[in-house]
Amino acid sequence: MGSLIVTDIGELVTADGSGVGEPALGLVHDAEIVVVGHEVVYAGPRGGGPRPADLPPPVAIDSVDGRLVSPGLCDPHTHPLWAGERTREFDLRNQGVRYAEIQRQGGGILATVRATTAASDEALIAGMRARLHRMLAQGVTRCEAKTGYGLLPAAELRLLDLLVQAAAGQPVSVSPTLLCHVPPPGLSPAERADLVAALAAILPEAKRRGAEALDVYCDEGAFTLAETEFLLRAGRAAGLRLRCHAEQFTHTGAAERAACLGATSVEHLEQIDPAGVVALARAGTVANLLPGAALTLRLPWPDARRLIDAGVRVALGTDLNPGTSLSESLPLMMTLACTQMGMSCAEAWLAVTIHAAHAVGSSGRLRAGARADIVVWDAEGYREVCQHFGVPLAQRVYIAGQLVWEAAPGPAR
């Protein structure tokens, strides 16, 4: 079995406190973590845990020289499985070209659908694993991962199978989601109705193949509110967690409807209305806010302050995707949330630990009985990770008590 002691921790974020804001971080100074096998048995003041002689051998002792230590981060919204690139679209959009014109020129989501459809299974798996490795280097130990670049039922099931294969045998724990992204263009009303029915029909099979959740994109150019509700009800009947891309470009009422249907999370929310905020708070639905997409698309920043003050549990995700948020850096999203969205550093940490973990069905805490997912940061305190952006600060990452990533040695601190 073996044991691990991570000691000489300057500041420990357990995310196991009480209340809101900084008290909820459960900060401990001059701390240590004791791990037996895959689980934490102690996380608290140094010297308060079991002695090395009382632990199952072999016992490894890792001194972190006064650094910050936290739970592994959780990214609750990613699209990591695709082929191709959309760099020209990024450049055109920054020069003022509208999305409709980019689509007319062959860009947008459909460009990724074409490239993904043409790519080999091996290339798609390799691409996703490379992205997961980059997440790991940013301190992420668990993420949600969506299909969505197939559009048609059989194509989405293919991508789900590949997503599950790509997740196997690598360190980051993955929660698969089947995404109903957008209907293909040019469908007649009857063909569109047939597509929605066919997507609903594959959801029990998606569950059998490893999907844990269903996500539906409700917006102008995507699925209508009525179609979204039909698909979410079918997902609930299939035993899937429910998610919904909602209120990103236009207000549709999807956030309120999804919350009333018991959605685990809703995503984006730049255009959410007061009724939607109340519904999320009442239902306990997590608001997965995605500052990378707002930054790239120059959308209004999601109003995290309003949501938090209303009692909504707010999480932060990268929205990793090839067109509108090409980033694996969850710490960067924490910086954007603090500087642009009204969140405190403590709230940003809660948004990538316990709140994000709640959205994907895990813990996000460091306490006795929790899986030992641990990040050692090249920082002295939790606020530094939010302030010091643009460089990777994760120094070591443990998953289930095993060291799985370590930064190259650098100058002494």
The average pLDDT is 96
The CATH class of the largest domain is Alpha Beta
Beta-strand portion reads: 15-25%
Estimated structural class: alpha/beta
Describe this structure in words.
With 413 residues, the protein is an alpha/beta fold. The chain is built from 16 helices and 16 strands. Helix content is 36%, strand content 22%. Strands 1, 2, 3, 4, 5, 14, 15 and 16 form an 8-stranded mixed β-sheet that branches. The protein has an 8-stranded parallel β-sheet with strand order 6-7-8-9-10-11-12-13, with helices on both faces. Strand 15 (394-399) and strand 16 form a beta hairpin.
Which SSEs are present, and which pair or pack?
Blueprint: E1 3-12, E2 28-36, E3 39-45, E4 59-63, E5 68-71, E6 73-75, H1 87-94, H2 99-104, H3 109-118, H4 121-136, E7 140-146, H5 153-167, E8 173-180, H6 189-201, H7 203-208, E9 213-217, H8 225-237, E10 241-246, H9 254-260, E11 265-268, H10 274-283, E12 286-289, H11 291-297, H12 304-309, E13 314-316, H13 330-340, H14 345-352, H15 354-360, E14 374-377, H16 382-387, E15 394-399, E16 402-406
Parallel strand pairs: 1-4, 1-5, 6-7, 7-8, 8-9, 9-10, 10-11, 11-12, 12-13
Antiparallel strand pairs: 1-2, 2-3, 5-14, 14-15, 15-16
